[in-house]
Amino acid sequence: MKEVAKQAAQILLEIEAVCLSPQVPFTWASGLKAPIYTDNRLIMSFPDQRRVIEGMLGQLIKDHYPQVTMIAGTATAGIPHAAFVASDLNLPMTYVRSSAKDHGKGRAIEGKLRPEDQVVVVEDLISTGRSVLNAAKQVQAEGAKVLGVVSIFNYQLPSGQLAFDQAGIPFHSLTDYTTLLQVAADQADLASHLSSLEAWHQDPQAWSQAHS
Fold first, then answer.
1. Has 97 been labeled as part of a binding site?
2. 91 among annotated binding-site residues
3. Could you tell me the CATH number of the domain that includes residue 197?
4. Angstrom distance (rounded) from CA 42 to CA 77
5. What is the pTM of this model?
6. 91 close to 69: Cβ distance less than 8 angstroms
7. Does residue 151 have a known ligand-binding role?
C-alpha cells in the first residue's frame, strides 16, 4: 500500500489536483489559511491518470469491503469517482445529497437504495469527515448498512479521525498528507518548505493565525 499511496500522491501533484503553496497560503471555505488546496474534480479531465486512480479505489474497496453490494457517492465531489468505480466493479450506484430536496419526493438519496444493501461511501477527500459521515447517516437512515468509507486523499487531521471513531465507521484512503510530503520532498521547489508544511499539519489553527 505504501507504493500505491506514493503513486497516488505523485499523480495528484502532477495534475495539480493537490497544490502546495506555503509562501502564498490558500483560504479554505472555513476561513482557515492553509498551504495546501485539494481539488480532486480535476482527475476527471485526465483519462490516463483517472484510470489509475479509479482502479486503485476499486481495489481498495475489494480489499477491505468484499461484501459490498452498492457504491454511494457524496454530492458533489464524490459522485464522479463513485460512478467510475461502480462501473469498474459492475455494481449499482447511488449518490447522497448534502440535504434532502425541498421539492418533488424530497429525497436526500438519488438512485435505488435497498434496506439489504451493504454500502461503501466514496468521497474525494477527508478533512473533518463531517460531510461524508452525514452522507453515511443518510444511508443508514434508509435501513442499509454502511460498511465503510473510501477516499482519494486524507488530510489526517485529528478532528477527522475522532469523528470516524465516534461514528464507528471505518475508512481507508488511497493517499494522505504524510505521504504527500514524502513525495514533495523530492521536488526542489518544495523541499525547502517542508518544515512549514509539517508545522501546518501539527497545528492548522496556529499556522493559519501566523499567516493571516
1. yes
2. no
3. 3.40.50.2020
4. 10
5. 0.94
6. yes
7. no
